[in-house]
Amino acid sequence: MSKKSQEGKIIRISGPVIEADDMRGAKMYDVVRVGDENLIGEIIRLNGDVATIQVYEDTNGLKPGEKVISTDMPLSVELGPGLLTNIYDGIQRPLPAIYEETGDFISRGVEAHAIDRKKKWHFKPVAKSGDKVSGCDVIGEVQETSIIVHKIIVPPDVKGTISSVEKEGDYTVEDDIAVITTDKEDVKLQMLQRWPVRKPRPVAKKYDPSLPLITGQRVIDTFFPVAKGGTAAIPGGFGTGKTVMLHQIAKWSDAQIVVYVGCGERGNEMTDVLREFPELVDPKTGEPLMSRTVLIANTSNMPVAARDASVYTGITIAEYYRDMGYDVALMADSTSRLAEAMREISGRLEEMPGEEGYPAYLASRLAEFYERAGRVKLLGSKDKEGSVSVIGAVSPPGGDFSEPVAQNTLRIVKVFWALDADLADKRHFPSINWLKSYSLHLDEVNGWWKKEVGEDWLKLRNKAMALLQKESELQEIVKLVGPDALPSKERAFLESARMIREDFLQQSAFHEVDTYCPSNKQYEMLRLMLKFSDKLQEAVDKNVHMDDILSMKSRENLARMSTVPNKEFEVRFQTVENDFEKEIDSLMKGGK
Amino acid sequence: MSNKDIEYTTVSEVAGPLIIVEGIKDVAYNEVVKIKTSYGEERTGQVLEVFSDKAIVQVFEGTKGLDTDKTSARFIGETMKLGVAKDMLGRVFDGTGNPLDDAPPIIPEDRRDINGNPINPYAREYPQEFIQTGISTIDGLNTLVRGQKLPIFSASGLPHNELAAQIARQAKVLGKEEKFAVVFCAMGITSEEANLFIRDFENTGALERTVMFLNLADDPTIERVILPRMALTCAEYLAFDLGMQVLVILTDLTNYAEALREIAAAREEVPGRRGYPGYMYTDLATIYERAGRIKGKKGSITQIPMLTMPDDDITHPIPDLTGYITEGQIVLERGLHKKDIYPPIAVLPCLSRLMDRGIGDGRTREDHAGVSNQLYAAYSEGCDLRDLVAIVGEDALSDRDRKFLNFAEEFEKKFVSQGKHEDRSIEQTLSIGWELFSRLPTSELKKIDEKYIKKYLPKGGKEE
Ligand SMILES: Nc1ncnc2c1ncn2[C@@H]1O[C@H](COP(=O)(O)OP(=O)(O)OP(=O)(O)O)[C@@H](O)[C@H]1O
Ligand SMILES: [Mg+2]
């Protein structure tokens, strides 16, 4: 039965929000085509015959009276091979294709398929006729990029018996590759599938996270780790290092797939990724980082209504790769822009404003988004796992975390990296404040660290934290009486804490070595610094003079451990350790 | 009869900078409106919101003298456009794009929508060509590159105009003879302030490479909302059609934001923070994001927006939202100004996000990143100690600490402070840095690679 799609006409235009009459019968959240240029919009309110629509493209020049046609479909993404290495706008139009069509500037009404229809992919079946399959079972495989095998999976809502599968060979994404007989009908499968962005893809079960997402960033991995399948927020005022950190995680984390959503931020930051990622090499696979990455860009000057679509598009793509059994990490920079877009649209709808003008549903929208993260048992007959980790930047006005977006996010996420403008001003990067940040994943990831890196990992980590805590207390005293008035023991503590702060917590994203610090190097650095700290205390107890300690030569080598090439660090650290032991021991022997 | 010829005399309401016209037909969102007062004066407006039979129109020259009786409105059938041409160089225009000088109107080579279109991020070229401004705190610590948007956060009474003029005068890309074309956009500044720039452009012969858009303090405020868009439309034409290197100076964005707020208030919108509209971030982004470079194009747009922080408060929405969009900021500080330091650039809160890739071997010098990081580290330590000394006195400091304290003083005097016409080369800037380092124990220079210390630290430097 084919039903004529609903056609109405515009009766009001206010920025990105329009109203159309004669729309009775159209459904909430259906996609509509607006005006003579066929702009893309989404129904966000229905009232009698009138539909309110947010338009994902610029509405300049639109007139009341122009037509609005419902497509009768919710906003969906296209899924299939070809997503990786691509860059999309907020509603999944590929920016390279738009570039081909309209040139350097993005104009309106561009039509472009998210996934290339002509390209042929080499498909290898792994299931056979007669197999009983359900959602997420693998039908076949395609080598999508040099490192990623794209698994062609049964859509989550399909269950039945395979009645035929195509042979190994080259197919386009629209060619039929299998037929599944369900209790209702025969379903033809193609490599190209669709999924509505606002509907989470179902899973069999959610597990607690247990493995760390190793990012190569010391302050994160060692101090405030995030688990695979976990959620983290990184709030901070402008210029405190959110984007650099998200880029670092996108580059170096041990996720298998990375989805990077630039939501309401700078165009050049997306260009930066496009330029840099193909040249950077994954430390584990030796392949270009771009091969595992999907980019979504709704930059600050692109239509505001598509902010929220960009994030949903991103998370749906992330879930799709999760459903193949991959560990996926999604970064959203910045969730505040998403919230502001909601506020703007809500304002135009003349909804009752909540705190600071944000709509009352801000909290539940944010929760829904982060809730789509997780380590999960996949649907399907095989006992398989996948994960989506979500890391969101928050950009609080004036850098003040008491505002609604930061506060509501804090209630949801398990890991909190609080950026600090004072640290950023001092060029202490990453400017994550160690006293305000936290991770609720410490116990979960401890098992991995114990097994893979060092039995006493958590103990070292906690000892270092205690030292930093003590430093901040001592500094309060110093502020009153000056450093000279402190007893030597306390001054030695301050020196050790300073070393951890300056030479462990600080890490330059732009230094060729320091940009990525492997987990065992992190562990060794911390172990040596804490051993040094213990030695200092011992020396002070033996009355070694503070000035002698401060002028120790070997201190400098400890301070430069982070830039020792990752391949050589084991040998070189050995020397560092021997040297400082020798130097301190000799001080203690000669000590008065 | 086309809509263009209809004079609607159906203005039903005049409120703040807005009028409502009823009984209209076939009017487009954002369309330009020509308004005529009862005494025949013509004004320009723009449709802010449109219904099947009525439109809300903002009037750029203000609504004084408009009425609901004889005032008429004509919808001209297109959105706001600017005629652009190479001949705009050397000319001065008012807030609606008409020439203010005595020369004849320009003959447009094209007419462009002033709102422009977003640059496709895929089409952007990453900015990384070093612009030498001759100012140490910028070149050495917060390097500007071609295609960057780097605002100056100032406050009333500080010499931000002098600084911007100095940048415009001295900016050059090393090894390239080509001079910058300047697009100067004044929003609500006094004629005295505007004259400072004009005189400077005249004296340096830059005037013929300059296009000016002026809306001065006593000009209609609502015009300020379209002025930067006209200036940038012109800049885009010069940069991306004619291949010129364009420097856009926008001043003062605070006046722009006030105009936005005025319109929002008149529409009784739910205000965001401190009364500014919730969409101010997006609105400012559509201005600032028009800076940049494009693949395969010779030209570029570098933006230096200036704003005055109300109450010297950097968390105020105007600097705050700007900082969230631009690629860094240069912050001026009253304290330094009072110490008679020019330019009074407060180094610590400054930032250039595009610096890392614009400096180093082959661009500036191999040691640049290290010098910059070390200057920051040492200066911020010195500033912390200054706070401490204020309480406990200098005697409580160790020898080491006293060196850092002294470093901070010398840094401000030698590195930050310079003449209004002093144009320092990047080598000069870096060597001042090294000269300052020689006052610190070498073992404290942890941010710089040892090989550069060997190469650049002046021989007099103490080994400890
Ligand atoms: N880990 C790091 N190593 C070295 N420099 C850093 C690091 N993190 C941040 N920076 C410096 O801080 C600058 C600002 O960082 P970034 O652009 O990430 O800020 P942001 O928090 O995303 O700001 P905004 O909210 O305005 O986007 C960078 O350009 C860089 O110079
Ligand atoms: Mg950022």
Summarize this structure as a short list of keywords or feature phrases:
heterodimer, A: 592 residues, alpha+beta, Elongation Factor Tu (Ef-tu), domain 3, OB fold (Dihydrolipoamide Acetyltransferase, E2P), Rossmann fold, six-stranded antiparallel β-barrel, 26 strands, 33% helix, globular, B: 464 residues, alpha/beta, ten-stranded mixed beta sheet, six-stranded antiparallel beta sheet, 13 helices, 32% helix, elongated, binds adenosine-5'-triphosphate, binds magnesium ion
Structural notes for this entry:
The complex is a heterodimer of chains A (592) and B (464). The mean pLDDT of chain A is 93. Chain A is α+β, with helices and mostly antiparallel strands and 592 residues long. Chain A starts with 6 loop residues before the first strand and ends with a helix. In chain A, the strands form five sheets. In chain A, strands 8, 18, 19, 20, 21, 22, 23, 24, 25 and 26 form a ten-stranded mixed β-sheet that branches. Chain A has a six-stranded antiparallel β-barrel with strand order 1-2-5-4-3-6. Chain A is built from 16 helices and 26 strands. Chain B is of the alpha/beta class. In chain B, strands 8, 10, 13, 15, 16, 17, 18, 19, 20 and 21 form a ten-stranded mixed β-sheet that branches. In chain B, strands 1-2-5-4-3-6 form a six-stranded antiparallel β-sheet, with no helix packed on it. The relative contact order of chain B is 0.12. The chains are: A alpha+beta (592), B alpha/beta (464). At the A-B interface, strand 1, helix 1, helix 4, helix 6 and helix 9 of A face strand 4, strand 10, helix 6, helix 7 and helix 10 of B. Strand 1 (7-14) of chain A pairs antiparallel with strand 4 (42-51) of chain B, so a sheet runs across the interface. Bound molecules: adenosine-5'-triphosphate and magnesium ion (MG). Adenosine-5'-triphosphate sits between chains A (236, 238-244, 265, 395, 429-430, 507-510) and B (324, 351, 353, 356).
